[in-house]
Amino acid sequence: MIAGIELGGTKTVVAIGTPEGKVVEEFRFPTTHPEETLAVAAEWLRARGTPGDICIAAFGPVGVVKGRENYGKILATPKAGWSDFSLTGALAEVFPEARYSIDTDVNAAALAEARIGAAAGLDDVAYITIGTGIGAGILSGGHLIHGSLHPETGHLKVPRHPEDTFKGVCPFHADCLEGLASGPAIAARWGKPADELPVGHPAWDMQAWYLAHGILSLLAIVSPEKVIVGGGVSQVAGLHEKINRLLVEIGAGYFPVLLTDGDYVVPPALGQEAGICGAFLLTGS
Amino acid sequence: MIAGIELGGTKTVVAIGTPEGKVVEEFRFPTTHPEETLAVAAEWLRARGTPGDICIAAFGPVGVVKGRENYGKILATPKAGWSDFSLTGALAEVFPEARYSIDTDVNAAALAEARIGAAAGLDDVAYITIGTGIGAGILSGGHLIHGSLHPETGHLKVPRHPEDTFKGVCPFHADCLEGLASGPAIAARWGKPADELPVGHPAWDMQAWYLAHGILSLLAIVSPEKVIVGGGVSQVAGLHEKINRLLVEIGAGYFPVLLTDGDYVVPPALGQEAGICGAFLLTGS
Asked: Residue A35: is it exposed, middle or buried by C-beta count within 10 angstroms (0-12/13-18/19+)?
């Protein structure tokens, strides 16, 4: 039996599935305190058997490189009670024999979209999610990128849109990508939340401009074959097309991968299942 | 016998060495037309034996992913005669039995600095070179990053220095990192070449500012444990210290790897030997 857990900031998914990324049965519940959240997941699993593998896709920052002291732990976070909490440690008290795999929720989603989703068959894929924050998971040459921690693409500095005077909402960097293009940034700049801004609102041209510049940075550094843009703030009609048009314009003929059919940036194919599907694809990693 | 070839824009190095990156004997000569350049290298090698492995570190764009149609070829380049020239093809006419490995000169240099140089022992390292152009090689989790092509970090868009009105020299993007911080950009902005600008000239504060912003993008996307900055335009005294100070300032406490001893960005340890040493480290890849 293979277990998957997707630990999100507000909801957690626990499931049974296959190493090919297929969910057989799942249960969604609110993320609360760490001990309680992991106990709910463990209890749901124990009622179904004893998993040989437990694969975790977690919000960050989280230690995901085997052999490092912080492996399996949530690192310094403003989320009350979670800093330094060991996810694998808590689960190992219930399932001491299981093999554990862990990565970020966005890396898991990138892996799922690259194996069975919108970028199926590609080994160089970036997945960006735009919501309360901005995050990215990156598969490069078939390997998920971690580095000294893991990508923090939301905190990328991008040029400013020439007509944008909004100072940005990131408490660390003010006008990084997340500070200028996350859901809270859009709401603060335009005075209403993204889902109340109609398709033709100038907010979406500016949003496409910032996302295109962030994606150009990904292209210059890791050269993905395809970029998936998902998350709550990406669902307005026409946003992906706008980003593709701007990328061709600002890439200025330099990046061969952009000179295709305008489908470099695409929406996710797996929707809200990408994280949990990706957790199963981490089996044995 | 293991052969290494570093093919640069103006000079080529051919050498015999070890898979640990040690050069036993080398010969440097000017890069001319492709057939002639490769013939000089092959002749020098043939006088010394028949290499079982030939490892190439080449200027880009170049096809470096095994199995792709463009593997071993120089791709579209303004360098006369080189577009679509197969490096491995030309050498295989002389040494048909050899095993070939190929990567970019900057990836080879990154690998050398990570194995036997300024970042020895680390698996997540970026190497940036600043000269006529700007390029980067990136080792991530022990794997060199290629993606759909290979990193083109020089063409990263960065915010503009608030006091900089220079429009930039990149023929594609004007004010990308290379357009604002390469040797030709510095010469055009300040009216004299970088090596004539004294240590206290304001050019160097602006240069550090642009490099710090480019490195912050690398940090947000691939999270290197250490960044090596080399190349002709990086050799002015104090530049690396300036970049480190700025990175701590603009990182604003968010990136744990910056909260160390101010030695996140360092000069190369292998100098102009990094590329050829790195070629040998590609043996069997």
From this structure: exposed
Domain membership of residue A157 (yes or no) is yes
Asked whether residue A158 falls in the same domain as residue A74, the answer is: no
Residue A61 preceded by cis peptide, ω within 30: yes
List of chain B residues whose C-beta atoms are within 8 Å of the C-beta of residue A155:
220, 254-255
The answer to whether residue A110 is domain-embedded is no
* Rounded Cα–Cα distance for residues A3 and A240 (Å): 34
**What residue numbers bound the domain in which A33 lies?**
2-104+273-281
Is residue B113 one of the residues assigned to a domain?
no
ipTM comes to 0.94
pLDDT in tens, B46-83: 999 999 999 999 998 899 999 999 999 999 888 889 99
Residues B17 and B153 in one domain: no
Q: Mark whether B125 and B259 lie in a shared domain.
A: yes
Q: Is the dihedral of CA A54, A57, A59, A60 positive or negative?
A: positive
In Å, how far is B137's CA from the nearest CA of chain A? 9
CA distance linking residue A7 with residue A87, whole number of Å: 10
CATH number at residue B63: 3.30.420.40
* pLDDT above 80 (res B109): yes
Question: A147: which chain B residues are within 8 Å (Cβ-Cβ)?
Answer: 124, 140-141, 222-225
- Asked whether the beta carbons of residue A147 and residue B224 sit closer than 8 angstroms, the reply is yes
Partner residue facing B223 (CB), from A140, A149, A154: A149
Question: Closest approach of chain B CAs to the CA of A64, in angstroms?
Answer: 12
Our CA-based measurement puts residue B155 at a distance from the nearest CA of chain A, in whole angstroms, of 6
Q: Given an 8 Å threshold on Cβ–Cβ distance, is A223 in contact with B141?
A: no
Q: Are residues A187 and A254 in the same domain?
A: yes
**Tally of domains within chain B:** 2
Q: What confidence score (pLDDT) does residue A45 get?
A: 98
Measure CB to CB from residue A257 to each of B148, B155, B173 and give the nearest one. B148
